[in-house]
Amino acid sequence: MSDSPRRFPGRPGDWVLHKDNQLIAFNKPAGMAVVPDKKKSANLLQIGAAYAHHDLYPIHRLDRPVSGVVVFGKKPSAQTAVSEQFQARTVDKTYLAIVGERPPKDADTLVHFIREGKGNTSEVVDQSDKSGKRAELSYRYLGSSDRYHLLEIKLHTGRKHQIRAQLGALGCPLRGDTKYGFKRGNEGKTIDLHAYTLAFDHPVSGSRMELTAPLPEEPVWQAFAEVVAGS
H or E element: which one contains 97? Predict the structure, then answer.
């Protein structure tokens, strides 16, 4: 039995962050796949194409449990132009992460070596392990609520489950992320990681674009709304 898009907040039109004749960007709800997968559940590619009345071409992905900015090309040429920027690491990505443990430092750069593990996971390994790939991110502490802490994350590499694995290795797993050490799962198997901003060059005009995805409506996120606005 497939999931229904009705379980997600709002309607597809409410998720649109930007659209023109080359691109369309959405604020993906947590729990929704970006592209069709083995579960044959609701996915943003198909829902977005139905909304736009236009074929869409995937450029990048977010894990199903994660929310935030996702961009599709409306033309194969746009898909290629922006995908090449991802490969060249000229795209700037900022994430917001809610964790249960405050990191030992308020700002730091983490470097680990990561390999794919069992059961759709990634694991941190010793640098001497030749199967490990270098993973680097920077984080900054933004503030705390009664029970949780908010971090801003800047990715410098793009490994599978990188933020999840690196924060888990730091002893600060994401809220709801039981795969990487958090004690309790969230409803709908989501995790509290939000792709907040994405900046890249427009495939035709060349002008720099920065897209920002509003925070999820869940109370745990809204508790940090003022902190984010002030950051």
Answer: strand 92-99
